[in-house]
Amino acid sequence: MAWSSRNQRLLLPARGSGIPSCRMLQTGYIFIVVLLLPLSSSSGCPAVCSCSSGEVNCMDRRLHLVPDDLPANTTTILLDYNSIAVLRNRTFVHQHMLQRLSLHSNRIMSVHRQALVGLGMLQELDLSGNSLTILLPETFFSVPSLMVLNLGNNELVSLDPELLGALPHLQTLSLHGNDLTSLSSAFFENLPALHSLRLGNNPWVCTCDIQPLFQWLTDNADKVPDAKSIACSLPAPLVQYPILDIGNKSFAHCHEPWLLPHDYAFFLLVGPSTFLGSVCISFLVAVIAVACTKMWTVSHPYHRPPTTRAERQRFSHLACR
To answer: Is residue 134 within 8 Å of 112, Cβ to Cβ?
Structure first.
C-alpha cells in the first residue's frame, strides 16, 4: 500500500512543473467551447432560408417576422415577397457586415426608430412596395454609409426634413408611388451627394408649398429621370400639368404681403373712426335711457320706488296690510 500510495503521488504533477492538471485541461476546454458557441450559432443559416457566398435568401417564405438566427457574417439579406409587417427594435443588431438589405413587397407598416442599429456598413436598402405612411426622423441614423434607398410604392404622406440628414453619402433615392403632396426646401439641403431621384406618381398639390420642389427640379432636372412626368394633381386647372412648366411667374404672388400699403391706410382711418363712433353711440343710448326713466317716474309717481325713510315706512305698512 505504501508503494501504491507513493506511485499515486508520483502521478500528480508537481507545482511549477509546467504540466497542466486534469482540472486545468477541463476548464480550458469549457472556455474554448463557450467562445465557439456564438460563432457557430451566428454563422448558421435559418432553416427557412438558403445561404451561399455571404448571401441569405429568405424570399417568398411566408415570413411574418425577420428570422432571429440570421448569420452575423452575411453581406446580403433578401427578405422580399413575405408578410413582414413590423421591423422591431434592433432587428439586425448582429449583422455588422451587412451591405445590402431588401424587404421589397412585404406588408411593413412600422419601422422602429432603432430597427437598423448595427448596420453601419449598409449601402443599399430596399423598403419599396410596403404600407409605410410615416418614417421617424431617427430611422436612418444608424446607417450613415447608405448610398441607395428605395421607398417607392408606399403610402408616405410627408417626409421630415431631418429624415435623410444622417445620410451624407446617399446617391440614389426613390420616392415614386407615394402620397406626397409637397417637399420642404430643407429636405433637399440634406442630400449633398444625390445624383438620382425618382418622384413620379405622387399627388403633388401645386400651390405655393410646391415652390421648393419646383425650384429644385429646375436646377437639378438632370438628376430626375422622370422629371417631365412629375405633374400636378391639384388644383383642378393644373391637373396633369408638369411642375417644371409652371414657371417662376406663377409663384410671384406667394411672396406678396397679405396687406398692401393702401390696406394699412384703410385700417388706420377706419379703425379709430369706428371706435369713436361706438363710444358716441353708447353715450347717446345711455342718455336716452336715463331720460326715459325720469319721464316714466314723473308720470307714474305711485310706481316710483320709495327713496325717503318716511316713504319706505309707509310702503312697508301698506305691504303688510
So the answer is: no
pTM for this model (two decimals) = 0.69
pLDDT digits 0-9 by tens, 227-255: 989 999 999 999 999 999 998 888 888 87
Cα separation, 321 vs 315, in Å, equals: 10
- Distance, in Å, from the CA atom of 171 to the CA atom of 192, rounded to the nearest integer, reads 9
Tell which residue, 102, 44, 51, 97, has the closest CA to residue 68.
Answer: 44
CA distances from 303 to 166, 202, 307, 312 (A): 86, 79, 12, 13
Got the DSSP string for 48-113?
TSEEETTEEE-TTS--SS--TT--TT-SEEE--SS---EE-TTTTTT-TT--EEE--SS---EE-T
Does residue 276 sit in helix, strand or coil? Answer: helix
Which residues fall within 8 angstroms of residue 54, CB to CB, at 6 or more apart?
73, 74, 75, 76, 97
- 303: which 3 cell numbers? 310706481
* Contact present, 170 and 191 (Cβ < 8 Å): yes
Distance between first and last Cα of the chain? 139
Among candidate residues 176, 182, 179, the one with its CA nearest the CA of residue 198: 176
What is the CA angle 256-261-265, rounded to 5?
145
How large is the C-alpha radius of gyration of the chain? 41
Cα(193)–Cα(209) distance, integer angstroms? 25
Q: How far, in Å, CA of 157 to CA of 109, rounded?
A: 13
Strands 50-52 and 55-57: antiparallel
Backbone angles phi, psi at 228, to 5 degrees: -75, -15
Q: What is the pLDDT of residue 304?
A: 54
